Amino acid sequence: MAKKLWGGRFTKKTHPLVEEFTKSIDYDYKLAKVDIIGSQIHVSILEKSGFLTKDEKSALLKGLDAIYNDIKDGKFVFDPDCEDIHTNIQNALENEVGDLVTKLHTARSRNDQVLFDLKLFSKNELLEITALLTDLKKAFAKACVSAKDIIIPGYTHLQRAQLIYLSDYLKSYMEMLDRDLNRLVDIGARIKLSLGAGALAGTPIKAEIYSQSIKDFITEQKKFAKVLNLKCDVTHAKALDTVSDRDFVIEILSALAILGMHLSRFAEDIIIWSTKEFNYVQLDDAFATGSSLMPQKKNPDVLELARGSVGTLNGNLVSVLTMMKGLPLTYNRDMQLDKPPLFSSLEIISRELKVMAPLVMTLTWNTDVIRSGIEEDESLYATDLAYYLIGKGMPFSKAHEVIGRLIRYSFENKRMIRSMKDEELNAFSDQLKHEEIVKLIDPEVSVKSRISVER
After folding, report:
1. How many whole angstroms from its chain centre is CA 84?
2. Which residues sit opposite 159 in a β-bridge?
3. What is the 8-class DSSP label of residue 289?
4. Is 276 helix (H, G, I), strand (E, B) or coil?
5. What is the spatial distance between Cα 145 and Cα 149, in angstroms, rounded to a whole number?
6. What range does the domain containing 385 cover?
7. Element (H, E) at 27
8. Are residues 41 and 138 both part of a single domain?
9. pLDDT recorded at residue 267
10. Are residues 398 and 359 in the same domain?
11. Residue 352 lies in a domain
12. Residues catalogued as catalytic
């Protein structure tokens, strides 16, 4: 059984079933690197506060550096018998520095230790996610350039509505991704690194020492310089909130769920449009899969998994919200369960963003099929024809009714409106003129007539 960070008050060993039920090393090993960083900062704090000599500080930092390098190089052994990653690292450090390790936990609680780890981990992960999200936005931007002259039907209620530029459709997803990016950046900026809360009520060390030590360490270590917006502002009241706060986890999970939903909506559009019934777009073979039975199949599995993953993303958010909703102040062991959902959502979104960018850039649009479908469907110009009558002084409701009857007549009699002469058109309104209508039933004219929005 691995050595614990506690136990003096107890007369019995922990039951093996309790050991198995309560341990978190199976997933919090992901915090190993940031836990080392937190410990390195804590060592500096202890030395500045007189709890360690300079030699002791040097020895501990050297030992922690050795463990960090082992973790980075994949040589560190994660002990499944340890309660958590903090215990695992403490035990490894004992092998490096001997009994000196017993001073490391001075003025420290795992309550604030794990929170520091999780915040620093989250800030770094958010930087990675925002970089991937920026790459996806660039992929959409490139797709917009190649699709700038393509006109497609726009849909409401999954029914054809009005003609739009394909580039505008793609830009609408760029708008969604831009909001996602801003949300994630804002969340990252709000995450303030903090040490010194202790278990819940602070420590005998001055708050300024904690704050300055965090800033000094991050500044000195170039590899961590990208972690911005540092703040350590610990009072007794704030310490209570600090160890019991998981708002930042919930915010991240919420933002990732929204981002996943946006990716799912795009996936759904492409899934539908790549069917034989639509045939608007083709997936590159490298981003599709086949059937083990049917040789002809080309399946959009990547897009389907992006769509399906929203269930997990939403569930992760709800699980943490539900876990937190009834917890009394301050720390409770329930909070250990915030990590699997957070790690899960970050991994899902990271994988999705990585595969979605090249997928978007390799989409092929079947312009002939799209153009043919537009030519056969004059109902796409119904609103344009209503505006035409309004321009002649007809009230909107009357114009709406006239064009509605005209469209119905066209469907029922299989008559193209552009082929109707004035006499036939006048049965609906004497203001309908064949020569003028023919000019309106044109994709370019239709999309360019709507000038209330920027392109």
Report:
1. 27
2. 156
3. B
4. coil
5. 9
6. 377-448
7. helix 25-28
8. no
9. 98
10. no
11. yes
12. 157, 291
Residues 57 and 165 in one domain: no
Q: Do the domain assignments include residue 358?
A: yes
Query: In sequence order, what E strands does 343-430 have?
Result: 364-365
DSSP 28-76: HGGGHHHHHHHHHHHHHHHHHTTSS-HHHHHHHHHHHHHHHHHHHTT--
pLDDT at residue 221 in the model: 65
- Find the CATH number of the domain harbouring 363: 1.20.200.10
- Is 122 inside any structural domain? yes
- Distance from the Cα of residue 323 to its chain's centroid: 21
The Cα 270–Cα 320 span in angstroms is: 32
Which residue type is seen at 450? R
* Domain's final residue, options 321, 337, 370: 370
Q: What is the mean pLDDT of each run of 10 residues along the chain (455 residues)?
A: 64 85 91 94 95 97 95 94 92 95 94 93 93 97 94 96 97 97 93 88 91 80 48 56 94 98 98 96 96 94 98 98 94 94 98 98 97 95 97 97 97 96 96 97 95 76
Q: Cβ(431)–Cβ(392) under 8 Å? A: yes
**Distance (Å, rounded) from C-alpha 383 to C-alpha 403?**
8
- Give the HSE-up count for residue 385: Cα atoms under 13 Å, Cβ half-sphere: 28
Q: How far apart are CA 422 and CA 437, in angstroms?
A: 10
Triad 78, 316, 171: Cα angle to 5° = 115
- How many distinct structural domains can be found in the chain? 3
pLDDT of residue 455: 62
The domain boundary residue, chosen from 348, 370, 392: 370
End-to-end Cα spacing for the chain: 66
One domain, residues 34 and 116: no
Q: For 74, left (φ over 0), alpha (ψ -120 to 50), or beta? A: left
350, 306: one domain: yes
pLDDT of residue 222: 54
The Cα–Cα gap between 251 and 385 comes to 47
Q: Which amino acid is at 106?
A: T
Q: Tell whether 178 and 264 lie within a shared domain.
A: yes
Q: In angstroms, rounded to a whole number, what is the distance separating the alpha carbons of residues 286 and 199?
A: 52
- Is there a single domain that holds both residue 119 and residue 27? no
Q: How far is CA 203 from CA 207, 214, 345, 434, in A?
A: 9, 16, 34, 86
Cα(49)–Cα(87) distance, integer angstroms = 24
The encoded tokens of residue 409 equal 């007549």
* pLDDT at position 7: 61
